[in-house]
């Protein structure tokens, strides 16, 4: 796969905001996120339906597609950032014009349910995206200990240079769940989006994958089902390493007295692969929003607790 990489951002550039999934519920977060983007020196352009509301999303799937395509077609827009996550992004995947997107590569960032779009853009347009900051829960999150500044500054480092960022920084201690080293292409995001798109044309397959994933509101027994479904798919054949992010509200409720721990579930599901696993990494549904570039060649050493990005995100 020949990656399509975006150009780096410069001060004065225009960033387009789209809402592929949830409507804007956290208005204070949204306003704060927009201000943080503007404080970096960028101008804002809003999709036509960003401030609309339709059921549990902003607009019909076709209208949301219209917003996304207008941003990728607009020569003045240099990056596209999702407003929030949600649960309806998958509705737009079969309606996008991936050739137009491929011919107009731009920075794209979002996480959670937007992970469906991150994976689809990589698979269908060969576009490397960022599983990272959205407006509401990324740029707009109010956190302790200046974590938001850390998240934003790392986003800036990725998106304003044509050099590799090298080693990923740490906010906390990462854990080796299985020692080892691996080199491969970063693919992943929200575990639900990975499992729903695996074995479809909207999942990017590389010969050597470092799979990264995180979870929210997922009981361990359901995680066991998802991981084992990936195990019996073709995906595990291509995985050379695994990076596990944050778990939020993932306590067992239904089988609380007899379910193994998340670590045990992950180790048993991957036992036949013997792949190295690095866990507790700073990304996912928490205030730690390390932006992970999809499709980029990387190296991991779980014993030493390092992840190295070996090529640039922008060019």
TrEMBL record:
The active site is at residues 112, 214, 285. Pfam families: Peptidase_S66, Peptidase_S66C. GO terms for molecular function: carboxypeptidase activity. Keywords: Carboxypeptidase, Hydrolase, Protease. Residues 15-132 form the LD-carboxypeptidase N-terminal domain. The keyword 4Fe-4S does not apply. Coiled coil: none annotated. The keyword ATP-binding does not apply. Residues 183-296 form the LD-carboxypeptidase C-terminal domain. This is Peptidase U61, LD-carboxypeptidase A. It comes from Candidatus Shapirobacteria bacterium GW2011_GWE1_38_10.
């Amino acid at each position: 796969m020949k990656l399509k990489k975006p150009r780096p951002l410069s001060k004065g550039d225009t960033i387009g905001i789209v809402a592929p999934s949830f409507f804007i519920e956290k208005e204070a977060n949204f306003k704060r996120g927009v201000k943080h983007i503007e404080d970096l020196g960028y101008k804002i352009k809003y999709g036509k339906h960003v401030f609309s509301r339709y059921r549990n999303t902003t607009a019909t799937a076709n209208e949301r597609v219209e917003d996304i395509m207008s941003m990728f077609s607009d020569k003045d827009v240099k990056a596209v950032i999702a407003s929030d996550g949600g649960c309806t992004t998958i509705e737009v995947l079969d309606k996008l014009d991936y050739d137009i997107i491929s011919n107009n590569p731009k920075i794209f960032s979002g996480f959670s349910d937007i992970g469906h779009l991150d994976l689809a853009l990589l698979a269908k347009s060969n576009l490397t995206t960022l599983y990272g900051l959205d407006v509401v829960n990324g740029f707009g999150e109010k956190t302790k200990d200046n974590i938001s500044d850390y998240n934003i500054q790392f986003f800036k480092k990725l998106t304003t240079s044509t050099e590799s960022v090298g080693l990923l920084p740490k906010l906390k201690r990462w854990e080796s769940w299985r020692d080892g080293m691996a080199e491969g292409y970063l693919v992943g995001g929200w575990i639900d989006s990975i499992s729903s798109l695996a074995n479809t044309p909207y999942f990017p397959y590389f010969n050597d994958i470092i799979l990264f994933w995180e979870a929210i509101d997922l009981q361990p027994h359901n995680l066991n089902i998802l991981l084992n479904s990936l195990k019996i798919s073709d995906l595990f054949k291509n995985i050379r390493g695994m990076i596990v992010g944050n778990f939020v509200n993932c306590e067992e409720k239904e089988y609380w007295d007899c379910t193994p721990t998340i670590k045990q579930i992950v180790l048993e599901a991957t036992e036949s692969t013997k792949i190295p696993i690095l866990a507790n990494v700073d990304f996912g549904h928490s205030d730690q929003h390390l932006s992970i570039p999809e499709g980029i060649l990387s190296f991991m050493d779980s014993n030493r607790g390092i992840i190295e990005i070996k090529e640039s995100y922008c060019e």
